[in-house]
Amino acid sequence: MDHNRDVFDSARVAAAYVEYAGPTDGFLDRGEAAALVAAAGVSRGTPVLDVGVGSGRTTAMLRLMSESYVAIDYAPTMVDAFRRNFPNVQAYVADARNLENFADGEFGLIVFSNNGIDTVTHEERGRVLAEFHRVLGASGMVVFSTLNRNGPSFGETPFQLSRPTQPFTFSPKRAVTAAGRRLLDPAGVVRSVRNWWSGRTRVDDRGTWATAPLAAHDFAPFMHFTTVSDVRALVTEAGFTIVEIFADDGSIVEPDAVTSSADNFTVVARK
Q1: pLDDT for 253-263, tens place per residue?
Q2: What is the pTM of this model?
Q3: Where do runs of H (alpha helix) occur along 73-162?
Q4: Residue 3 DSSP SS3
Q5: How many CB atoms are closer than 10 A to CB 260?
Q6: Please, which residues have CB within 8 angstroms of residue 110's CB and are 6 or more apart in sequence?
């Protein structure tokens, strides 16, 4: 899955992050907002590690929580974009699967937003959380978001007029809008179809989790999709206690819930 590093290290994707996910765009969804509020009460003032920082969308928010802030991303082009936005903030090229440059117990809060943990394989997700556990201090908190296999982002195609898991109703307005977008960006349509066609043969659906292309960035990323049971097992096996799991609409995924139609989850967990 280092294919994904190449995707996010491209100048085109980095430019998209700068334009659409710049340093002051705020929360991606209500679940992320609720999760960071929940973590702030415990982690305020402690050192923060912002993983997969991109161009710096989360930086201003997290620096309000702590003056001790470090940003990392495994894509050098993204780190270059970040440094242009925040020239005086610590930022490094580093991989969440190997945080060897950081000491045991160095941070009080780790944030891995925008489904960044989904860019690695199923097995490597455990390695990421093991590294987080190591560099977090006692009672340290981790906040990360992850795509839901039972949500609308799983199984999308370049040809759809409605998203999977959502009922299809024909709408002339929707059809015209979709056609207009394709006419405005024909190169993007070609990339989307080519990437989706290539990726569809590598889809691996295990029921409780899956890997598949993601529609973002012309279906170039090949991502991991979780379920409620899978993400709970991932977090607890890494030695964390789940504080809360939020759906993208900000609602809480109840501890006894066995499924969810949320597009993604944001998990708050404590060491």
Answers
A1: 999 999 999 99
A2: 0.85
A3: 76-85, 122-135
A4: helix
A5: 21
A6: 48, 49, 51, 132, 135, 136, 140, 141, 142, 143, 144
